[in-house]
Amino acid sequence: MAKQCDRLIDYFNNQLTEREREAFEIHLGECASCQEELAELEELTMDLPFGVDAVEPPEDMKDRVLSNVKNVNQVKDNAQSSDTTTKVTDIKDKKDMPPLKKKKSWYKPLIVATLTLSLVGNGVALIYLNQEEKPESTAPSEPEQEEVSLDTLSQKHALQPSEGVSAQATALMIEQNNHVNLVVQAEDLPPLSGEEAYQVWVLEDGTPYRAGTFISSEDGTGAVSYVMDYDKEYNFDTIAITKEPNANSQQPQGDILLSSPL
Amino acid sequence: MREEDVDLFNRVQAQDEAALEQLYDRYERILYSFSFRVTNNKFLAEEAVQDVFTKIWTKQRNFDEKKGKFSSWLLTMARNTCIDLLRKRKETPYEFEERDSIQSKEPTPEDQVEWKERGEEMQSALKELPKEQQEIIELFYFKGMSQSAISKTCDIPLGTVKGRVRLSLKHLKGILTKKRERGVYEDG
């Protein structure tokens, strides 16, 4: 059992894998000396955070954080009011989304996915039934899909706005039928003019690859779903959104508005 | 009168937005400063703060009064989030010497009574520790490093890390205890 006792530091520092942690917790339940040492570590470190120097938070952080926190709640209300089955419209064939004229049904899975992820915590797979929603009479009808596939949410990132930009965006990577579907949703985007469009990029060592194009609605929101089918395996390290002169930029020409490490 | 943290917390869990804001105002500075100290990155620090409040708001975490102070519970949650966020980023080599030079130091805000009281004592106690014990605490607690990373960074055998961590923390506690006794004596 000496081996498990050696893991106390890594357990305290949240450095164990899920499986290691479970094994350690079983050990902890039986090992009086580990229990004692853990309690001791907790007690001895309790006051340490107060030893840090004060750092001024960004001015608009409070607004951002509180609205994001409350937003989770609104999403929850939406989710609760909907049926027990989560309805998801599959848009995997659309690489470039049409302008957002009104709230489309595909918006719902995104917020439900975000909510569920927040609720269950990072790393836990979200599994939901992929089920076509009945097209509204006015909406262009899409072929009904009979097959049911299991999608899992593999990554979620909150993109950070660049200096002087107030926009917000979230990127979700959903594994679906051996493909990765990248879903990006953005708010408070600066307005577009003419043929301008927002372009999502994923980068590997500074080399950008196109990952979805979209335009925003009047209130500055926009979203895009993109199937990440590239010619080979990449190890992307960054995701970024730029404003481009049109929807066809093969290399970014505009400045980065939002970005996040992957 | 100042509303108890626990009462605020219960109101937040009952989806009281005013209570959420009050609790946020009360802990924004210490949570952000601490998260910044751990991550050394303002975006990650903000993400950690948001994560803490999201977890409270969505009732993913429950506070148990028997397990200690509310503030310590919040800060532990922030620390775990920071470590998670750091682990998701690529490993960057860490230089002990560089830390203090890149932080802009500000006076602890006057309204943060608890921080002021517990912080000043802690800061001066940390400074009294020998350099290598300061470093062990820095790497173990503030950087949340794994045992093997600490062993490599400090160039000490893996098997001695836990012992050194405990020794350094106990030494720190001893210094704090002496300070407090002296404080009580001087006040009396």
Topology:
The complex is a heterodimer of chains A (262) and B (188).
Chain A: H1 2-5, H2 8-12, H3 18-30, H4 32-45, H5 61-81, H6 107-120, E1 127-129, E2 150-161, E3 168-176, E4 179-187, E5 197-204, E6 207-214, E7 222-227, E8 238-244, E9 256-261
Antiparallel strand pairs in A: 1-2, 2-3, 2-9, 3-4, 4-7, 5-6, 5-8, 8-9
Helix pairs in contact in A: 5-6
Chain B: H1 5-13, H2 17-39, H3 42-57, H4 70-88, H5 99-102, H6 113-128, H7 131-142, H8 147-154, H9 161-187
Helix pairs in contact in B: 1-2, 2-3, 2-4, 3-4, 6-9, 7-9
Count of DSSP-assigned helices of chain A: 6
Strand content of chain A: 25-35%
Calculate Rg of chain A over CA atoms: 22 Å
Please trace the helix and strand order of chain A, writing H or E for each element: HHHHHHEEEEEEEEE
* Helix/sheet category of chain B: mainly alpha
Distance between the termini of chain A: 38 Å
Low-confidence stretches of chain B: 91-104
What is the number of helical segments of chain B per DSSP (H or I, 4+ residues)? 9
How would you sum up the global shape of chain A? extended
CATH level-3 fold name of the largest domain in chain B: Rna Polymerase Sigma Factor, Chain: A
Proportion of residues in extended strands of chain B: under 5%
Question: What is the CATH top level name of the largest domain in chain B?
Answer: Mainly Alpha
Number of separate strands of chain B:
0
